[in-house]
Amino acid sequence: MLTNLSIPLLFAVFAIAGLAVVLASIRATALADIIADRTKMGEAMAGGLILGAATSLAGVVVSVDAALSGDASYAFSNAVGGIAAQTLFLAIADVLHKRANLEHAAAEPANLFQAVMLIILLSVPLCAIAGPDIAYFGIHPVSVILFVVYLYGVKLSTTVKENPMWRPVRTSDTRRDEPEDGDEPNKSVRGPALSFVGLVVIMGVGGWFISQAGGQFIERFSMSSSLVGSLITAVVTSLPEFVTTLVAVRRGALQLAIGGIIGGNTFDTLFLLAGDVAYRDGSLYHAIELNDVYWLGTGLLMTAILLAGLILRQREGPARIGIESVLMMAVYLAALTVEVTG
């Protein structure tokens, strides 16, 4: 559809689609907070299950569209590159949250458990890559396992939220998850929910245009699929997570901010399932490039560092941010350097 567009128009379409996705995500954040309060779901769970999945939709569309076109590297790198970028956004949000280390202030058992689930979900495709090249009906068995593990993880996350077996120590800097003043839990959730669905549709359409533009960048500028997927489309389709994180932090919904990133990253692992189903030339995991595996390892490492920060709960570190944020920035910068110079 974008094949015959001039380069200036191509960039314009890419920018407009990205802007539409970002603006829709800003409103979606406020609605997710309202839905969390009215359903008594809680910010961490709403961030992980509702907001995280919604803001990830544009990225899903990119990976599926890339896989359908036969570009496995583009589909895979968009997924894992987005996970690394979104984890970086938490470090940036930590810099902007002046009162205390963000991971300290947003202590929540559900976020800890979702971080553990994300590490497990990122390890599964790594095993597939190192394992035998097999596929049934064009789908690797690991993709099915990935989906089952995700569903089971969602169920367990709900259990952790409703019946936590431990609670974090409350300090003067710990932000409690409480309903906003004036937003009564007994109000109807239907209106906010319908508006939220409409915004999700906008983000999905925007994701398709971003995918098409990314494919043109690969073709016209002879850029590698890994570079475009991990550093261009992944970052742009991850901007909703960045915006929603900043908006949530500004609103004081710190559990929603962290839950949205970790939950969004957990949902993003399903990009690999969707990409494997859409890729018709065999197993997606055995058709990728070495740089794509590096980005998978980067996302895994950054998540482990984030989990350590959530457990350590350091109040202040270098430049008034947690040491985990400094380390996550360093790991991402190293991956960026490897991608650009590799």
UniProtKB/TrEMBL annotation:
Residue numbers spanned by region Disordered: 167-189
Record-level GO cellular component terms: membrane
Biological process annotations from GO: transmembrane transport
Membrane topology listed for this record: Multi-pass membrane protein
Annotated ranges, domain Sodium/calcium exchanger membrane region: 10-152, 194-337
Subcellular compartments: Membrane
Major localization listed first in the record, in broad terms: membrane
Keyword Membrane among record annotations: yes
One Pfam family recorded for the sequence: Na_Ca_ex
Keyword terms: Membrane, Transmembrane, Transmembrane helix
Domain of life: Bacteria
InterPro entries hit by this protein: NaCa_Exmemb (IPR004837), NCX_ion-bd_dom_sf (IPR044880)
Source organism of the structure: Roseivivax halodurans JCM 10272
Membrane spanning residue stretches: 6-26, 46-68, 74-92, 112-131, 137-154, 193-211, 231-249, 256-274, 294-312, 319-338
Protein name (record): Cation transporter
